[in-house]
Design goal:
The protein is α/β, with parallel strands linked by helices. The protein has helices at 17-33, 52-65, 86-100, 115-129, 188-196, 199-211, 239-258, 284-298, 304-316, 338-350, 356-359, 362-371, 393-396, and strands at 7-8, 11-12, 43-47, 68-73, 105-109, 132-137, 143-145, 152-154, 164-170, 175-181, 214-224, 264-269, 329-330. A 7-stranded parallel sheet has the order 5-4-3-6-11-12-13, with helices on both faces.
């Protein structure tokens, strides 16, 4: 099958296996070029391991610290006439690269919110690794089924209290328009917290603790975002921000629960980047396009792999986490530098469809988006026939 990108709104409905493999290989090369992470993790569980920050976390741990990794994701396999999801091909490529490097890698494909998957993963940790010393929680899902009640929660991206109007980017056409988003109503906030807050992170940690599979000194990290004030109504102060507040509440609880092991829970605030999750948030793609240009001009632009390598290499395992006043690790520090934000804010006030190509990095945004699905990578023959129905080694056993 010859696979081309098919974009529908803010998602791409196709993915390319060789392109995804090339993207994974490029990330591995970045990590290996930086040498070994001293005193890095050795047995790592990544919950939400197939794309974006989760995938890059797994790559950084494995190829930066020679860690054994277990990954959990929920992806659709390919068929003869339909490609798999990008996350499926990413996971396959990661396992192949890990095997070639002599690294243990095992993946689970299923609903990470469920008790059944938690048990299956814990049994594998017991059998294969004994314990883990780092747990990354990087799930991004629009819905969650409560494992106890069976209730299905659905998250929404809405402001709280009043409607929000601001500039927005049509990522298909490159048109800068204006968007108005109506405020949350009913149980929107509670539903979003149930999906994207800290409850499942706590359930995972409780289950791992009860099973005795967390090592002495184990660390666990969940990811968040804050961003500039222009995005706060839809993010930090919106429904998703309420969920992230809950994540921080749970972080404090987990610190107490991990104290007997001399362990630590962290919330890491990461940089705004093009991911499958961020592409869905109104206003944010325009901000990212402006930010990319400023940071590339400054020479401080990072993608997910540079961010996660820096988190592990310079913060978690160098004894220098540099927490902020709320106890969060800030690897968005380069993004939030006043000189960067001042330029972005100035251009935000000016930007329109006519000058967007000069003020923003739309080509960079589009390239980053397509690369998530394995498209636009050098050295891949996209005109060649490719096998879409390939398996993931550890799932084929």
């Amino acid at each position: 099958m010859i696979i081309a990108p098919k974009i529908r709104g803010f998602i791409c409905t196709t993915a390319h296996p060789e392109g995804c493999a090339k993207h994974v290989a490029e990330q591995i090369a970045v990590v290996k070029s930086r040498g070994l992470i001293e005193n890095g993790p050795k047995r790592v569980l990544v919950i939400g391991s197939s794309t974006g920050y989760g995938l890059s976390s797994r790559i950084a741990a494995a190829f930066g610290a020679n860690a054994a990794t277990i990954g959990v994701a929920f992806e659709r396999p390919g068929e003869a006439d339909r490609p798999a999801t990008a996350g499926w091909y990413n996971t396959r490529a990661f396992e192949q690269e890990a095997a070639a490097a002599g690294l243990y890698a095992r993946s689970f494909n299923g609903d990470a919110f469920s008790d059944a998957v938690k048990k299956e993963v814990i049994d594998a940790v017991k059998a294969d690794l004994g314990q883990v010393d780092l747990v990354i929680y990087s799930l991004a899902s629009p819905r969650r089924t409560d494992p106890k009640t069976g209730e299905v929660y659905k998250s929404v991206l809405k402001p709280v209290g009043e409607s929000y109007t601001n500039k927005n980017l049509n990522t298909t056409t490159g048109v800068v328009n204006e968007i108005t988003i109506e405020p949350a109503e009913g149980d929107d906030i509670c539903q979003t917290i149930a999906v994207m807050g800290g409850e499942d992170w706590e359930l995972w940690t409780d289950a791992l603790l009860e099973a005795g599979v967390l090592a002495e000194g184990c660390q666990t990290v969940a990811y968040s975002y804050i961003g500039p004030s222009m995005t706060w109504p839809i993010y930090k102060n919106g429904t998703i921000g309420k969920a992230k507040e809950d994540l921080e509440r749970v972080q404090r609880l987990l610190d107490e629960k991990l104290a007997p092991l001399h362990g630590k829970a962290w919330v890491s605030v990461n940089k705004a980047l093009v991911t499958q999750a961020s592409s869905a948030i109104p206003v944010v793609p325009l901000y990212i396009s402006l930010l990319y240009k400023v940071m590339k001009d400054e020479g401080t632009h990072e993608d997910t792999i540079e961010q996660m390598d820096r988190l592990l290499r310079d913060r978690l395992y160098k004894g220098n986490p540099q927490p902020d006043e709320a106890g969060r690790i800030r690897v968005d520090d380069w993004e939030m530098k006043p000189q960067v934000q001042d330029i972005v804010a100035e251009r935000w006030a000016q930007v329109d469809t006519e000058n967007f190509q000069q003020l923003g990095d739309f080509a960079g945004y589009q390239s980053s988006f397509l690369r998530l699905f394995g498209f636009g990578l050098a050295g891949v023959d996209y005109s060649a026939d490719t096998d879409t129905a390939v398996g993931i080694p550890s799932l084929d056993k």
